[in-house]
Structure formats: C-alpha cells, structure tokens
Amino acid sequence: MIPPKEEIEKAISEVKKYVDQRIKEFKNLKSKNLTTFNFRPFLDIEPYQADIFSEACFCILTANSSAAMGIKIQKSIGIKGFKNLDLKDLYEKIREHGHRFAMQRAERIVKLREKENFLLDIAKEKDGKKAREKLVKEIYGYGYKEASHFLRNIGFDDVAIIDRHISRFLFEKGLVKPRKTITKKVYLECEEALEKIAKDFKLTQAELDLYIFYIKTKKVLK
C-alpha cells in the first residue's frame, strides 16, 4: 500500500494547477455569486456559469449519484432553469440524464427556492463549521456531507466532504477505523483526521479534498 504522504505529494505534482483553478472558481461564487466552471480535461463538457443557488441544487443532484452526472445536469438546466422551471419540466431535465431519483430531486430543488436568500446569507459567513450547522438545521435533506459539499463549492476552506471516496481513503490508509455507516460522530472523526493531513501539507480542507478525490478517481471535479 502506498503511504498517504506519497500519494498526496504525487497528486500535487500532477494536478496542482487544476486544483488551484477549481478553488478560484469556488471563491468567485463566494465573492461574486457567479463563476465559470471549466472541467476540461477531466470531462468533455463546455465551460458554463453557475451561481450560489444553482450550486446548492448541484449538491442535491450529486448526492447518491456522481459529480459527473451532477455537472452535466447543472450545465443542462442552467442558472435560470433551477429558479424558474416548473416541477414537471425540471423532472424531465433531470430524468434525461438517467438520474435514479429524478422526481425526488426535482421536488427538493423546487422546495429549495424558498431558501435562496438564506443561502446567499450563508455565503457571507466566516466560519464554515458554524455555517454548516445552520444549513443542516434549515435546508431539507441536507446532512453534514451535502452541507459541507455546498460550502466547499462556494469558497469555504474549513469543512471536509466525507463521501465514499474520502472515507475509503481514510479507512484504507488506517487513518480512521472502518465503519459501515457515517454517523455525525464518525463524520467529525474523519474530518479531524483530514485536518491533520491538511496541516502537514499546508493545504486547506478544500484543496485536500480535491487531491484525494483525484487520487481515487483521476479527475478534478467538484
């Protein structure tokens, strides 16, 4: 087994420019409520614009699915579509891409429209962990992972996204005891382990997440 230090160093040497680019795209969302995502060479998809609300919708779409599918749907629906399409049309747009939970996701996105101003206010927060608690309490269907994903994607550096790729990396490297279920306690334990790694490499949590995702998938997505 390759030690985590060697794998992360190798990932940094291979894709640092793409990780830096993605972080800049995220920071634009936080400061301007608008960014242009460019996922080439990892996905053959034209660059497209997103705002904070459409990014919250992306995080709904990618849960129990994949980042690649969420990206394709986000580009297809667009900023205005997430805010204005009726439930039926939104469902059809999501279903076209083969999403297993198209109607449930469409319903959640329509419901999320009530919280657009709340999401914009959250983007102004300074502390990602405090913002996460507010999101989990306020946004229907958002757990720690979805809330952390959204915050990272809108420019917060201090929360970790404990998805299957990240948890598997930690378990395989013996950094955290393997668990079948990611409870809140396990989530925070994993996040603490990642904080130590990030500190060792002088990386933010946001950067480290992208590097580990690349190690597991050979892609820098979001």
From TrEMBL:
Which Gene3D superfamilies does the UniProt record give?
Answer: Helix-hairpin-Helix base-excision DNA repair enzymes (C-terminal) (1.10.1670.10), Hypothetical protein, domain 2 (1.10.340.30)
Query: Which Enzyme Commission numbers does its entry carry?
Result: 3.2.2.-, 4.2.99.18
Name the domain of life. Answer: Bacteria
A single Gene Ontology MF term assigned here is: hydrolase activity, hydrolyzing N-glycosyl compounds
Q: Source organism lineage? A: Bacteria, Pseudomonadati, Aquificota, Aquificia, Aquificales
**Could you confirm whether the keyword DNA repair appears in this record?**
yes
Q: Where is the HhH-GPD domain?
A: 61-217
Per the entry, what this protein does is: Catalyzes the excision of an oxidatively damaged form of guanine (7,8-dihydro-8-oxoguanine = 8-oxoG) from DNA. Also cleaves the DNA backbone at apurinic/apyrimidinic sites (AP sites).
Q: Where is this site: Important for guanine/8-oxoguanine distinction?
A: K222
* Family to which this protein belongs: Belongs to the type-2 OGG1 family.
Q: Name one GO biological process term.
A: base-excision repair
- Indicate whether Hydrolase appears among the record's keywords: yes
Native organism is Hydrogenothermus marinus
Q: Which SMART domains match?
A: ENDO3c
Recorded protein name is: 8-oxoguanine DNA glycosylase/AP lyase
Cited CDD domains: ENDO3c
Catalytic activity reported: 2'-deoxyribonucleotide-(2'-deoxyribose 5'-phosphate)-2'-deoxyribonucleotide-DNA = a 3'-end 2'-deoxyribonucleotide-(2,3-dehydro-2,3-deoxyribose 5'-phosphate)-DNA + a 5'-end 5'-phospho-2'-deoxyribonucleoside-DNA + H(+)
Active site location: K145, D163
Query: What keywords are annotated for this sequence in UniProt?
Result: DNA damage, DNA repair, Glycosidase, Hydrolase, Lyase, Multifunctional enzyme
